[in-house]
Amino acid sequence: MLLVISTVADSGQIVESLPGYPGKLPFTLETGYVGVGDLEEVQLFYYFVESDRDPVRDPLLLWLTGGPGCSAFSGLVYEIGPLNFDFDAFNGSLPSLVLNQYTWTKVANIIFLDSPVGTGFSYSKSQESYYTSDTLSSKAIYEFLRKWITNHPKFINNPLYIAGDSYSGMIVPTVTVEVAEGNRAKHKPYLNLQGYILGNPVTDLHNDENSRVEYFYRLGLISSECLRQPKHTVLENIYHQMQAMLNCTIKVCDAQILEPKCSFASPKPMGLKWGRKFFDDTPIDIALSSQQGPDNWCRNSNYVLSYIWANDEGVQHALHVRNDTITDWMRCNKTLAYDYDILSTVFYHKELIMTGYRALVYSGDHDMLIPYTGTVAWIYTLNLTVVDDWRPWFVEGQIAGFTEKYAHKVGDGLVFITVKGGGHTAPEYKPKECLAMVDRWLSYYLL
């Protein structure tokens, strides 16, 4: 059924100042809701930041954080957005904000979208509409985009890229296909889709998990004996092999193997099988527990500030959050009524590349959750031609990682990049390098 996009009044409002930031914001921030679905019962909340450089000509990125159920606020403040929390100055009161000198909004306009429904400040007017899935969420995002562009016509000609990380590896290619098919079907408005960007992406649930074994071995976390298949594939031998790997890796930080493991976080009961919710988030009551101290800091401690800030009444008023639409804001909502109905997006990647769309796929090479080894493996299955062999890329004269470029008969193809020292996900750990990466790629420069 053809969706008719009505030209309803835009609910977006400009935010000129925020609690915790001194003075007026030095960039254009808009927040608002776009209604999607039957009777617009689902209200998707977004943060939109205009490019510092040239909003009229610079690319437009739609940013989707993983989870599923993790707010795009993570992308805004912890990864690629114009603000960071001032962790050193935090004293238990409302956290203060500082500018991120490596924000991607230096080179692009970015919509940070709370999706699916139930994520961040996005909500539904009915209980039934809270039930969603990979497929339904992707269709809702496509509807959001068409309505948002209709209400922001000055960005209709900007090059459009769908972007995200972690579990968004299942959603970004699906949304990109939705947009491409909508354009072919001549849906209005026409979206100037150029390609997509993915960081540390979940792509194939089975193979992503299996790739960890090779990664463990390459990083020296398990022995060669653990890598080999048992001589007799009886359950007892397989169990001992899995137990050996578990004993070697359970105390290693999943998101960045060189960082300390959160000693106060509950252990993962499933051992090597981490499950489908890849963003690890510690409840605020645990993260604020007395077991923490300067000697056992872990990165999850930083996420506490988002709970304190986003649940503040003054903050929600400044962001134009509608009253009584959410009870408690969570960085990652793990109670979604969600159906994981897409098992792999490898076919979507192949379809998009062969149609001529550009793709940037990057991985922090110290990420143990979604190792780069698995990403390289599924890229090889696309049977693309290597046009630029594996080589280092540089930032300020230093190796920032390694890259390889693949192409098909048409279009610019796919660029794969590792970010040296990056974790899950790379911009949080290596912001300078990741800004250089995306700036060069969006500008069609060689890395």
TrEMBL record:
Pfam family, one: Peptidase_S10
Domain of life assignment: Eukaryota
Keyword Magnesium found: no
Molecular function in Gene Ontology: acyltransferase activity, transferring groups other than amino-acyl groups; serine-type carboxypeptidase activity
GO BP terms, alphabetized: proteolysis; secondary metabolic process
Lineage of origin: Eukaryota, Viridiplantae, Streptophyta, Embryophyta, Tracheophyta
Name of protein: Uncharacterized protein
Keyword entries, A-Z: Carboxypeptidase, Glycoprotein, Hydrolase, Protease
PROSITE patterns xref list: CARBOXYPEPT_SER_HIS
